[in-house]
Amino acid sequence: GYPPRDLLLNPNFVQSSLATLVDLSKQVACPTLVGTVQPNPHGELEGEKPLYNSMALLARGEVEKIFVKRLLPTYDVFDEYRYFAPGKESSFLTLANQLRIGVTICEDLWNDEQFWGRRNYRVNPVAELAALGVDLILNLSASPYTVGKQQLRENMLQHAVQRYQIPIIYVNQVGGNDDLIFDGQSVAFNRRGEIVCRAKSFQEDLLFIEFDPVTRDLLPSTINPLSSCAAEEIWSALVLGVRDYTHKCGFKQAVLGLSGGIDSALVGAIATSALGKDNVLGVMMPSPYSSEGSVADATTLAENLQIKTIKLPIESLMQSYDAVLHDLFAGTEFGIAEENLQSRIRGNLLMAIANKFGYLLLSTGNKSEMAVGYCTLYGDMNGGLAVIADLPKTLVYSLCRWLNRDREVIPKEILIKPPSAELKPNQVDQDSLPPYDILDDILEQSICQHHSLAEIVASGHDLTTVQKVLNLVHKAEFKRKQAPPGLKVTDRAFGTGWRMPIASKICL
C-alpha cells in the first residue's frame, strides 16, 4: 500500500518487493499492471535518488515492461523526492498489436495548466502521450481521500479528455494506511468526456470495461453513484479507516472511554460499524463532577449500539492523588492541574485495559480541541488512533445528526446539551473557548485557507477573539506532536501533512 515511507530505505524491503513481483508475474493469466518500486540504475553515477516509483507490466510469465512516474509531489502528505527519482520519458504499452495504452501514475495527471491556471511541474505527461498518438490513457493512483475530492478528480479528468480527445481510465487505491484513507471510486471517461464507468466508494470493487476497436472508444459499463452527501462520505471514510488501521496493526477489538459527550458517542458508533458490536468495549469513568445525565446518556448510547460496557468510578483515585500531592500543592488554588488529573486517571485506566486485553485504545478528541489544545496530554489524548481528530466540533454535530436520520443512534440528550469536559462544577466548554461555530470558522480560515489575522478579522470576527484562538493554536503544537495518528478527511489535517515547529515565535 501507499505510502511505504521509510520502508523504502530498507534494501531487504525493496528486494522482497522485486521478488514478489516476479512470483506474481508467473501467476497472472492476462496482462496485468502492478504498482511497485524499481532500482534507479543511474542513481549513484548521476547523483539521483536510488529508486523509481513505478508500474510493472506482467505478461507471458514475466515482468515485461516498467513504467516510471514522471511527476513527484512534495506537498501536503506527499514526500516522494525523499525516495524517488523522476522518470525521464512518457511511455505506452500495446495490446493485441493495435491498442496503444499510455501509462501514467497518479500525479502525472495533475499538471494541466488550463485546468489549474498554473503549472506545478515543467512537463505534462498527458500532453506527451497525446503527441505519441495513444488510443487510451490509464492512470494508477493512490490518491488520499478528502471530503469532496472525487468531484474535483472527475472535473480534472473530464477536462483532460476533452482537451486531448483521448479516453482515460483512472484506477484508485482503496483502504486505510495509517492516517490516510483511500476511497477507490475508480472512474473512466470516453472520448466525449462522458463517465462510462465508476467503481464503488470505500470498498474493493471489480469492474469490466470494453474498448471498441471500431469507434476507438470506451463503451458504457457499470456506473456506481457518488455519495449522496458529505456526511455519508465522511462516515464511510472513517469506518474504513478504523477497520483497516485496527486489522493491519494486528488488533481485533477496541476500547474507548464513554463520557456521555458527543465526541465519544460518535467514535463509539464509528468503531461499532467498523469492528462489530462484539468487538467494542465502552468504559464509563464518572467522577464527582460527572452529571447523572452524562452517565445515563453514555448508558443509553451503549444500549443503542449494543456494545459491552463497564463502569469504573474514579473518585477514590482522585482522593489518592490529592493526598499524595497535598503538601506540594498546599496554599494553591484548585486549577487546571487538578482538573487534568481526572483526565489522566481515566487515560491510565484505559491504557491498562488496552494493555491487559490487547485492545486498541481509540482516542475521542476532535479537531477543534486538538487545534487549541483543549485536551489533556497523557489523559484523553491517550490512544493508538484518534478517530475524529480531523473533524471540527461543528462537523461532529452534523455527522451525528446525519447518523440519526432514520433512527436514534446518538441519544438526543447528547445532541442538545452544552458540551462540557465536566472536570469541575457546572463547567462548559464555552467557559474557555468561543462558541464552536465561531471557533471553527476562525480555525478553518487560519489552518485550511492560510488567512492572516487581518483577513480573518475583516471577515467579521472580533480581533481579541481571533488573537486568542491563533495564540492557542500556536501554543498547542507540542501536544499535537505527541498525539496518536488521526484519520485525515479534510485538506489540512494535523498529521503527516502538518509540519509546524514547536519552538518558534508566533507570526500573526
Low-confidence stretches: none
Oligomer: single chain
Content of β-strand: 15-25%
Number of helices: 17
Gross morphology is elongated
Strand line-up across the major sheet: 4-5-6-7-10-11
Give average pLDDT, whole number: 95
| Total count of strands | 18
Look at the helices and sheets and give the structural class.
alpha/beta
Rg of Cα set: 26 Å
The proportion of residues forming helix, as a percent range, comes to 25-40%
Major sheet description = 6 strands, mixed
Question: What does this entry show, briefly?
Answer:
This protein has helices spanning 11-25, 43-46, 113-116, 125-131, 149-164, 230-248, 262-275, 292-305, 315-329, 336-357, 367-372, 393-403, 412-416, 436-448, 453-458, 463-475, 477-481, and strands at 32-39, 51-59, 62-68, 91-95, 99-105, 136-141, 168-172, 174-177, 180-183, 187-189, 195-198, 211-212, 217-218, 254-257, 280-284, 308-311, 360-363, 385-386. It has 508 residues and is α/β, with parallel strands linked by helices.
Folded structure, characterized:
With 508 residues, this protein is of the alpha/beta class. The chain is built from 17 helices and 18 strands. The strands form 5 sheets. Strands 4-5-6-7-10-11 form a 6-stranded mixed β-sheet, with helices on one face. A 5-stranded parallel β-sheet has the order 16-15-14-17-18, with helices on both faces. Strands 1-2-3 form a 3-stranded antiparallel β-sheet, with helices on one face. The chain is elongated, with a radius of gyration of 26 Å. 41% of the residues are buried. The model has no long low-confidence stretch (mean pLDDT 95).
